[in-house]
């Protein structure tokens, strides 16, 4: 990564630290000798990150100008890494408002530089003809450049790294479909970039001279088509050569539905990614090299970027995923256990079992739920619930896990989010599927008054209106099968875990 500027360590504000790139940028800034402050709407989501003890975390929101100004106190460089990918219909207005607030707050606090990562757009295409998301990225960059604060706008196309949405789409499409019927955009030329190079440019931008106020194209060393990327991935992964048949009639909307069907990435997120590939996205200049030169070994090539990402996935060493960021529209109301809970109807389904196994064995099963391990009851029923969720625009069941064995607060877990984890005792999940209300699932590992291991499970639902009431009573007849079976099977898995421990 880039070295420390001549003026010594800088105080850097990072927004989007709970997201894919922000969560990776923080340790790189620390390694470069800078001091880091993270702005988060929910600071608790950063609690389990390995670097959290080395940074300052403040509560705030890019749509709350007062909290922005407070967060920017004594800040030298402010990183703007938030956007509304997969967000609501009015995301352009929201992004515009946030960018203006960010620029005003930075100017008011005398911030030395803003660094923003946007999307690569061809100069030959009028902004009005760009996809809505690319158009919004371009507008945000322009607003920050006009803020009166020296700004670096980095414009990247496809970012490849373990856990990135672009990599997971490429990975699942190639691995699951030996024969692919693809849209016409697979012929579009693009310039992918490895996430390690994106981070190097982000860190290096902190030390740019004050007079620099412009956008830079950033990309890897190769220009390829998406079709070529799929074939290169198959070769790197040791898969047979893929047969790719192109159908130009597939629209971005149909493409996103197709991606959502085959990959864990929901259509709401896949669509802006697919739309961005309608136009050629190739760097038109390399001026960034005058400020952040290539390392001696050069930028990361496509095959190396794919191999590195694939190795981290196989080694379960994925630091952040595309699903690390909160889902737009996901419930953010207080938990029923929070002091400021407002009351109202709260339905519960509670199960309790004595488990003839150690608490350690039981906890290992609890922390390993979801993903490849499933939910320990009626796999088809869970799969159908996931399909139904995706059909109505939800995240579905296939987001999986960041790590196959360990969870941390803020992790996505299929269509849940880890809301709280007390190692060895409690795992609380908040539902992010589309529901007429708020839902949580709690799993406890305890000892009873006789010293026996006890598993306690609690599902909670806070309905919204009549539809929420109807939903709860409509599904409640199935709870004995789904939640009862889940409790029994988790207990049984803990017993098996205990029996297998001496063998291991």
Automatic annotation (TrEMBL):
Native source species: Streptomyces durbertensis
Gene3D superfamilies (alphabetical): NAD(P)-binding Rossmann-like Domain
Domain NAD(P)-binding: 16-157
InterPro entries: ComplexI_NDUFA9_subunit, DUF2867, NAD(P)-bd_dom, NAD(P)-bd_dom_sf
Protein name (database record): SDR family oxidoreductase
